[in-house]
User: Fold these one by one.
Assistant:
Number 1:
Amino acid sequence: MSPRTRRILFYFGAAGLVTILAWGVLGLPAYGQYQGPYGDLVSYAAVQSRHATDVVSAVNFDIRAIDTLGEEFILFTSVMGVVLLLRKRVEPKDVDEAAADVATGREKEPPSNAVRLLCLGLVGVSVLFGLYIVTHGQLTPGGGFQGGVVLATVPLLVYLAADVRVLHQIAPRKLVDAGEALAAGAFIGLGLVAVALQEPFLTNFLPLGTTGRIDSSGTIMAISIVTGIEVGGAFVVLLSSFLAETLERIPEEHRGEP
């Protein structure tokens, strides 16, 4: 297929996509004029029945928690696939030791004082903000997925301010692996506890507390916390695996250099 033909097909496809999107947007109801009963029922159930003021978290971690469980294990399986694909290059040693050995031979350029100061200054802020997002998902926009990603940036900031060995000192690979796996299993465990109590899977069995307080919403908060641990751990595992692979490849690519 010639470049001219590909451009023509692209223009037709882009025009069709824009037309469909415009059609859909023009068909939306006016702001504040919701036309379906589902949102009204969910809003009522989230606050009155679940004691959660953030309806999105009530949907994610209670009303449709089984969907969220599947999404979490999609991430878990993806990370496991990356680790399996990269396992060959670091198989003879523990990944932490391999990364440290390679880094000893050829490390990244040391960061400037400005970069080091900025990254270290952001560590504490990122930890507090990530913990806030994870633990307040039932009250304000956020939750385990968003907070877990924020917490995962902390080891990256440490790496940018120092090197890979310091990263593995504050986030040991084996500990992160275990935490991620236990948190993923805890999500299922919370559902099985409900089954053991003769309730449907993932039904709330904890005290709901007072609406608007951090200890409210029962299992919604618990699931948000274990999700935050799993998501944060998953991204740290990805970071460690990619860094180990990169640092091991660098000497091979520069063997011909004097």
Note: Residues 140 and 146 are 12 Å apart (CA to CA).
Number 2:
Amino acid sequence: MTKLSHLDEQGAAHMVDVSAKDITTRQACAEAIIQMSEQAFSAAITGTGPKGEVLATARIAGIMAIKRTSELIPLCHPLSISNAAIDFEPLPKQSALRILATVKTDGKTGVEMEALTGASIAALTVYDMIKAIDKASQIGSIRLLAKSGGKSGAYSIPQSHTHHVSSGFRDAPARGLGKTMTPTQRSVTPAQTLGGGPRQALRTFMIEHHLRASQWAKAANVPVAQIYGFLTGKTHTIAPETLSKLASVVGVRPQDLLGSHE
């Protein structure tokens, strides 16, 4: 059996002495997946969550966590991080987000824990940002995908271990509730309901075209509040001039943004 390097001869935990190791370029990538209701997914992707920009906030939180991993995991070495990135892959069919944390350093020990910590904290931040819409959102599949550098060399997760988000992931019984709750059974207040018609058509358009409200508004030189207000139901329409500017940015007609309802 492989000896655990974090245990000494007496079985006590200790920080590994890396002073004799060579400095090499080390990189690691980890993932976390958070699955949520359709309402929460829409809010996260379009940037209209109750607390504001979901992905932007989660990205900063993940990067901050990467840099402070040694303060959170007792036996990790403090490292000089040369690069840290948090990326998001929307999984619309599962109403899920796949979070990828990539970390790089030139040092004597690897950055696997930094990548795992970054992905985990980013996922927790997504949950915090959308919990007002869906408290039953689930975080799973936190794992190392690949690493390189160091004495052990390169590693990537075996093909047999790869998997997609299971359709049953959302249907697991909620702890303490004693029964299964599917997305359609969850109670949502009227203020949180997506609604249909033009509002839903615009949400769908934004998700399909990977548009964030703040970035889209900036590109069109229009107030982002007009997009937020319409998507969240605070206003019933978007000014025609605003709609035209938004449509011109993505090269479509204004009525295309609202489906066949306008």
Note: The two ends are 67 Å apart (CA to CA).
